[in-house]
Amino acid sequence: MPPAPPNTSAPPVRPVRPVRPGATLAVTAAATALVTVAYTAPTASLAATAQAAHLGASGLTWILTGTLVGISALLLTAGSAADDHGRKRVFTSGVLLFAVAEALAALAPGGTVYLAARVLLGVASAAVLAPALGLISHAHPAGPERIRALGIWGAAVGLGIAVGPVYGALVQQWAGWRAVGGGLAVVSAAVAACAAACLTESRAEQPRALDPYGVLTLAAGTTLLIAGLAEGRSGWGRPSAVVLLVGGVALLAAFAVVEARVREPMLDLALFRSPGFIAATGGALFTGLSLVGFMSYLPTLLQGVLGLSGLAAGGVLALWSGLSVVAALQARRLAARLAATTQVALGLLVCGLGEAGLYGLTPGSSWLRLAPGLAVAGLGSGVLNAALARLAVSSVPAHRAAMGSGANNTSRYLGSALGVAVTVTVAASAHPHTPGPEAAARALATGTDRAVLVAAALCLLGAALALAAHRADRRPAPTPEPTRTPAPAR
After folding, report:
1. pTM (2 decimals)?
2. Which residues of the chain fall below pLDDT 70?
3. What whole-number distance in Å separates Cα of residue 392 and Cα of residue 32?
């Protein structure tokens, strides 16, 4: 009997695209650097951008805060969605939305649309950052190669911070504030095309159900909290600031209640029993609070105290962020000797010492006075970025890597929003005794010294938290008491 003819009606099986570790790392690192470039680009020319976009004093603070709102509100949500529905899908969509947001910023007819574009940019950045570490961990198996890859990703964070202020100041000076977003839109469109062509899709084997109440309470809570921090810079007793802050805290408390009761939470609160997860989220929070927040406002302080141009102030900041790139690339050499939690503690301690070295800034002094402190803080930042990336992945189950990245970055950017608010408030706390620009510069120098000490103290507090988590992680588990067998009855 002749064999039956093959069944040609069945649909062809699409071959699975092989994982390309090098391409995955290059695309995710490039997109991460773009996100930090876009966030930091206005920092060296905040006043000029606000004036050109016809924004008032409150609008000036929202240039940075708007992006923080979008990032913090959706990072954790984007991470969970990436794990459940596809990390490549969320990442590529995020890069495309990033290009749209930057194009909208470039074409904005006025300040209101420009600020809306900055919020949309934050939403897109969340969709880029959250899946990035999940894509890297899927392409690089656990071991030295993954540690190296995560160190390169951490270096990309520092590279973006180094390039952003200089790029923003240069383009603003030569071509205007609209060209800043236009250039980033073109580059991000190219990165999106590379992501679609090079990345391999990955997701959890058992996707979880949507957590709508968790999404709503987290997004609304972080939005109100960051908005309250922005409004509080003009006076913490203002009714609008108080209402926003109280509402934000209440909604974040509601988020914790929801996550404790829902069957499949977006953020499993049981993870906070893990010392590694506490070190990851706590270290990221203090990184934003003590380091990113202060450094984001440092160019503005340098312009006010030393009279530097926006480009020069961005160049001074690049000394810190540039050295963080070098340190992050070499941090893998510490992995065999130090646990990731110890690296977080060490990085925060070194950053605190470096920030303390910035104390004593006076009008008329040279920017070289800041070089040693910025160099030390830069080295600590590189170690810190690499260690936090490593902890974000290793402190959660492998199939929730994007969620771990989202939780880590949410803590970092919430801390950044609070850190900027603290820095602005403390720096403005010293008032000139006499009118005039010289007296104002001296008063700002005094306020800057106070902000330096606060930032350094917060670094040390974060280092203590990470060290405590490390000790708890090394503590042996309690040995269960032997079960006593009852004596037989006589």
Report:
1. 0.81
2. 1-17, 56-60, 473-490
3. 15
